[in-house]
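Give me the 3D structure for Planctomycete cytochrome C.
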Amino acid sequence: MLRLRTLGPGLVHLRSLKPAYLRDSTEHSPGRAAAESLAAMSTVWPTGTRALRCGRVILFVLLASMITCVPATADDAALQRLFRNELAPLLRTYCYDCHGESDGEGGLSLAADDSADKLVKGRQHWMRAKAQLQLGSMPPADYETMDTVSRDRMVELIDQLANSINCVQNPNAGKVTLRRLNRTEYRNTIRDLTGVDYSPAKDFPGDDVGYGFDTIGDVLSLPPLLMEKYLDAAEDIVGQAIDTVPPPQSFAISVQPLKLKGADQFDGNRSLAMNHNGTVTLSLEAPFYGDYTVTMVVSGDQAGDAPVQIRVASGGKAFTLSIPESDPTEKTVTFRLGKKKHDIDVSFLNDFYASKPYSREKEDRNFFLHNIEVHGTERRSKQLLDADLNPNHRRLLFVTPGKTASFESAAAAVLSRFASRAYRRPASKQEASRLVQFAKQVHDGGATFEESMQVAMQAVLVSPHFLFRVEKPRTPDAQGRMPNINEYELATRISYFLWSSMPDDELLLMAHRGELRDQSKLREKVTRMIHDRRSSRFVGSFASQWLQLRNLERADPDTQVYQGFNETIRESMRIETLMFFSELMKKNQPVTRLIDADFTYLNESLAEFYGIPNVQGEAFRLVSLKDSQRGGLLTHGSILTVTSNPTRTSPVKRGKWILDNLLNMPPAPAPPNVPELDKGPLVGSLRDRMEQHRSNPACAACHKMMDPLGFALENFDAVGQFRTRDGQDEIDASGEMPDGTQFQGASGLRELLGSQRKEQFVRCLVEKLMTYSLGRGTEYYDKCAIDRIMSETQANEFRFVDVIIGIIESDPFQKQGFRE
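Predicted structure for Planctomycete cytochrome C (820 residues):
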């Protein structure tokens, strides 16, 4: 196989891509071929990673009037009146005493934003305030009680003013930073493109995470090391995909002349001295059919009127050589030999001896053999046999030069199709032509057709159009409408959303026909994609990151305390949760079943670990949980394990996990210098100790939200097994939210999340899916799209496929806006 980097000018040209990839402010143009510098592109690189954040899209308020987007008026005066006449009096009554203009507790000053305009600019901290209001943690319990009507109206006003956006008049669809394929997407794309399962996990640097996902454009940078790895990977991948004629074998042997057959008839010290006619023989076991060169170092004592003559013979072919030299010199002959044993004879032909007249001196012609070596090179056809070709080779090189196709026409057909599939859009004539010329340059240098295709395909695999999901920059039209991305770009967004890989031929054909915005055809295709085996990539990527299952492999329960836990159980827990998510999606169940399902998927080992009888065999199957303490994600061993400590449960971690991942209400970071629970002077049961910990005013606000949620799961230990006691203490699994909502145990928590806060959970899931699929965090202007998805899917109980199609049909997914 030829290497891309050994091609002289071609190497320099391709490697010149690297600096352009890395320049922060370089502009990129998607119309260039693989070997073009990225300096010509027109999409602006991010100049830095944004602060990671989650939950900036407004959480769903449990008021009927908030189901759809509140169309904020464009009249600034009206917004100012709304702030001055309605919100400001509520703020003065309940907030300004603690969060005044200059002395705001927790660093939060609400009074400083004394107008509607300032409130919009301070949107981020107003969203934090709104979340605290929704949970009931603000105003604090020792402050004036806030009635429900005032609380709901304050939430509504903050939402309307901080996110004042007209959902009718072309809201911004947002823009995604030029996105590099992450490691998972790269592996899947390579497999679908070439058939080679190349794992970059060991060699590629890890992908950074933003907003909880590794699909975020802002953090998927391209360090120099990764560019080097891409070059190595491209070479390895095409070498596995395309067969080439193996390089010829070589052979070498060196024999001391004194050890040749017949050498004992002559004199010798270190060299063989043949002082009379005769023959010595080298016996050679030729390992292959090929050309064998015999190299001899020889000399002669000259006498008479002719130089020393020798004959070298093998297999009926002989060479006669004159040796006029008296000093050692090198002579070579070459034989074509088959794979068998051969004798190579070296004969001295013209011995001469005579006395000089009138002298005691003698004339003596002798031959000296100082060294003998044989070097063999295999001869083989440059044609590959069809029977020996791997399936990937046949699929990629579907045309080869011959009687009906020239090198150029065959290369154009092969490379145009390969580049079009790799770039996820038709390769331009210019791009295809450059690849063909590149391949021809390699071919003209003596490479075979297959080797030329290898090198050209390596160029494709290090092109920005393969490594990045490039979308043509667009601007709003004269009416301010945000433009749609083209159908090939839409196909790419869909396939990487649902398959973490390139579009298949059917999706590309739909894009070519302009069918991806036909609602019925799109729904049919998306449904087929969800039922395709490749949808397991979406489950493994999205669900694992959303639910933090990737932390399961790092969880380290103390097996002295939890003796039933082992690696088999760990893996079974992971499979249970992913299979549960996958089956709900494929069966188009309401997404709320993730919370309140009365079934799961178990095998015998995990069922026995959970204490569930009558499950036999190691295959996972549907298991009813009716009349059981379990149900929904919250009682999966995987979730309970990743939210626990090695030796005990952690109500704080579990409560925070629920706020982060199911309600999209992440608590503020813990204040500095607050001791961990085990390190403080705390006594009593875990609940008693948590109460003492919560007595710290710096901790109280957040723990009032987290702890009740976590305590509801206390009947499940640190590895998810059910219990009624914690040591000597009876488990108290009751909880009360800051707004007074009470619940009991896991079943009560499921009721709270799956019924009372159902829409808030669904909105959280929609936002997580949008973040994952778009490759950026959701912004305030995405509220219009999220509200529409909520509204349109509510009538059908928020079913999985409806939610996914709603995201795909949304403006942020279909259009390209701008960054604010």
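Confidence is low (pLDDT under 50) at residues 5-74. Let me know if you want a second pass.
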